Amino acid sequence: MNSGSTEQALAPGPMAHRQRSAHPGFPPIGDYGFLSDCETTCLIAPNGAVEWMCLPRPDSPSVFGAILDRSAGHFRLGPYGQSQPAARRYLPGGLILETTWQTETGWLTVRDALVMGKWHNTDQRSRTHRRTPTDWDAEHMLLRTVKCVSGTVELELSCEPAFDYHRKAAAWEYTGKVYEQATAYCTDSPEGEPTLTLTTNLRLGIERREARARTRMVEGDQVFVALSWGELPAPHSFAEAAQKMWDTAECWRQWITIGRFPDHPWRGYLQRSALTLKGLTYAPTGALLAAATTSLPETPGGERNWDYRYAWIRDSTFALWGLYTLGLDREANDFFDFISDMGVDENGEPVPLQVMYGVGGEHELVEEELTHLTGYEGARPVRIGNGAFNQRQHDVWGIILDSVYLHVRSRNQVPENLWPLLKRQVEEAIDNWRKPDHGIWEVRGEPQHFTSSKVVCWVALDRGAKLATMHGETGYSQQWAAIADEIKADILKHGVDERGVFTQRYGDPALDASLLLVPLMRFLPPADYRVRNTVLAIADELTQDGLVLRYRVEETDDGLSGEEGTFTICSFWLVSALVEIGEVERANRLLEKLLSYASPLKLYAEEIDPSNGRHLGNFPQAFTHLALINAVVHVIRAEEEWETGAFQPAHHHHHSH
Q1: Which of 170, 210, 395, 448 could form a disulfide bond with 505, CB atoms 3.0-4.6 angstroms apart?
Q2: Mean of the pLDDT values across residues 80-108?
Q3: In which element (H, E) is residue 149 found?
Q4: Residue 610, Cα to own-chain centre: how many angstroms?
Q5: Using CA atoms, how far apart are residues 396 and 401, in angstroms rounded to an integer?
Q6: Burial readout 282-318 (b: 16 or more C-beta within 10 A, e: otherwise)
Q7: Residue 54's beta-bridge partner residues?
Q8: What's the predicted TM-score (pTM) here?
């Protein structure tokens, strides 16, 4: 924020206002609704417009991209001339969005879903699925149903796709008997681009890129609109559409019923987080997307804009813990299998792990900038791909080994095929732990000796030694435990300042929220004075309005300019760490505050601006929801133990992250 910062400081009001009005029409990030069928995701603005959707995969080019540029494609269904609904909610227990509209003349409700149905690949094996198929499956269809509840309402449909991030033109043609169906296709170099078929009981009109319809609905009228890009036929009557909607709701209800959710006021947050995480999984491979979007800014109008539509190895250990805790073992196992797939080549030989992968297991994620898009509220550059895929980040091996440890602990034995992979990761950690890296935050400045990276290298050897014991490899077990002690001694010597506080990097007093992992990853017992000092220093000195920053931007060479918001995951980590050191009251207060910042649909982006509660960064973000599950479960367990008299601060017996 160097350029023009004085002007900004002198006149925050008008400046801020001018910045906003220069980019009218973008909804706040936290106001989008999120839909998924576990193969495709989309975001829907409050006005009823689909403003982000990529086909056929979540990391494919967008067909609706208005969230990144108002002209980059949308699909709106709602009352003509009105953009603010009376209410929006998810139907309980699933990812079906219901929007209620009140106009001057009447009321209507719209329901939106990405359709799930009974497993339909019965005649041929699915080409995309590597994981065990479940009982139900994506139908590759976005279904929208409308009911006029009272009075009369003028309904408007406008569907204007823009292929390949708005780099290729779209055209519509009628494909039905009369006006009930039209298909959009890409006019220039269409190979690889999907075709979109719109089927409805409205009469469609075509205006170049746009398919549109308007009708006057009276009480009792029912409309459906289906957008499909797969093989399955669209519904041809409202009754068929309603049945698909019911099937989808039932799929989600059956799924959520498998989970274990405590009978507690925070149950709703846990369920919504679980549904969001499920929606961010890519069912064919088991991958977990970091978020559904790219380039939503971490600083309003700033340059910290990244593509998060990939699977990060780092999310795995937190994902497994959160999913296993809620009884969602199938998703946890699928993600684990995806990650262990990544650790071997075609011949089953172990290979070094990258930081992240494409959801189909791709290794190359070349970063490029889309200069033709304005960006969300003018935040440029818009990036696709992610240049961090080949960075050196030394927490990868420890995260994997912790994931393996979590995965096999319930089975009490190490599967034979995992041992070579596991051994390779431990050896990578041994070879590299003394070297600098880019750290957990993927900073784009010079590599440093980040304390938290060393801590997670210790985790690699600690968990490796435990796994070797389980596998009957006592020689490796003793050798690795000895190196773990050596790493621990090095960290305690160089990574702790004279106050007894863990610092961001060796020989520098800067604080870093990743050091909350010291107690959460069991590096030191919570009763250790250095743990307590670190947790309290972060709580008191690395916060803004009580929420936690990753680090102070001015103290860290991250290769970027600009401020950033508070990292929500760090605040949730602080809740868990406060519980660990026995500060349950303080943890509870912080958690209440964090839950109050949830979006109206109980979703979270990556960051929160504490001055106005706005969500910043990509949305919805898996890591944030994982950290929420951790924190909520931590506090609920501490409260239960408190009530039964079993709570002893700093002597936690749970393995927890």
Answers
A1: 448
A2: 98
A3: strand 136-160
A4: 20
A5: 9
A6: bbbbbbbbbbbbbbbbbbbbbebbbbbbbbbbbbbbb
A7: 62
A8: 0.93
Looking at this protein, which amino acid is placed at residue 489? A
Look at residue 349 and give its three-state secondary structure.
Answer: coil
Q: Please say whether the beta carbons of 494 and 449 come within 8 A.
A: yes
Beta bridge partners of 218: 152
CB 574 within 8 A of CB 516: yes
Structure tokens at 267: 């149950």
- CB-based contact 632:269 (threshold 8 Å): yes
Nearest one of 193, 101, 189, 113 to 149, comparing CA atoms = 101
Q: What tokens were used for 93?
A: 């227990």
Give, for 227, the enclosing helix (H) or strand (E): strand 222-228
Query: What span, in angstroms and rounded, lies between the C-alpha atoms of 25 and 41?
Result: 22
Res 286 pLDDT > 50:
yes
The residue type of 68 is L
Return the number of other C-beta atoms located less than 10 Å from residue 258's C-beta. Answer: 13
DSSP single-letter state for residue 388: G
Structure-block tokens of residue 540: 């008191």
Q: Sign of dihedral through CA atoms 594, 274, 256, 413?
A: negative
Strand partners, 211: 159, 206
- Residue 361 amino acid letter: G
**What's the token pair of residue 33?**
């609704």
Classify the phi-psi angles of 284: left when phi > 0, otherwise alpha if psi is within -120 to 50, otherwise beta: alpha
Both structure tokens of 476: 């490796």
Place 654 in a pLDDT band, splitting at 50, 70 and 90. Answer: very low
Report the length, in residues, of the chain.
657
Give the span between the Cα atoms of 546 and 539, in whole angstroms.
8
The rounded distance, in Å, linking the Cα atoms of 509 and 527 is: 22
Q: Are strands 97-102 and 49-54 parallel, antiparallel or unpaired?
A: unpaired
Q: How far apart are CA 487 and CA 461, in angstroms?
A: 9
Residue 391 C-alpha from the chain's centroid: 21
- Torsions phi, psi for 541 (to 5 deg): -115, -15
Beta-strand relationship, 356-357 and 311-312: antiparallel
Q: What is the mean pLDDT of residues 452-465?
A: 98
pLDDT of residue 125: 52
Q: What does the pLDDT read at residue 124?
A: 54
Look up residue 523 and give its amino acid. F
- Exposure string (b/e) for 39-78, b if CB count within 10 Å is 16 or more? bbbbbbbbbbbbbbbbbebbbbbbbbbbbbbeebbbbbbb
